[in-house]
């Protein structure tokens, strides 16, 4: 009986450790997701600027 209790306590400690690790990983994933969203927004803004610059260079100068 003591063996079973000891094994259960050991498993409980391992589960606690794994739950804490899962919390850390989940937090890191959230942070990563936020960074990815910010990079995507920046990329969209850069693409819009690229388009504007491209349109400006295609316009022929006035008076030619």
Question: Your description of this structure?
Answer:
- With 64 residues, the protein is mainly alpha-helical.
- It has a domain at 14-41.
- The chain is 89% helix and 0% strand.
- The chain contains one helix and no strands.
- The longest helix is centred in the middle third of the chain and has 57 residues, at 2-58.
- The protein is rod-shaped, with a radius of gyration of 28 Å.
- It starts with a helix and ends in a 6-residue tail after the last helix.
- The relative contact order is 0.05.
- The mean pLDDT is 91.
Query: Beta fraction of the residues?
Result: under 5%
The amount of helix comes to over 70%
Major sheet summary line: none
Q: Compute the average pLDDT.
A: 91
Structural class: mainly alpha
Query: Unreliable runs, pLDDT <50, ≥5 residues?
Result: none
Instruction: Compute the separation of the termini in Å.
Output: 97 Å
Order of helices and strands: H
Number of helices: 1
Q: Overall 3D geometry?
A: rod-shaped
Radius of gyration, rounded?
A: 28 Å
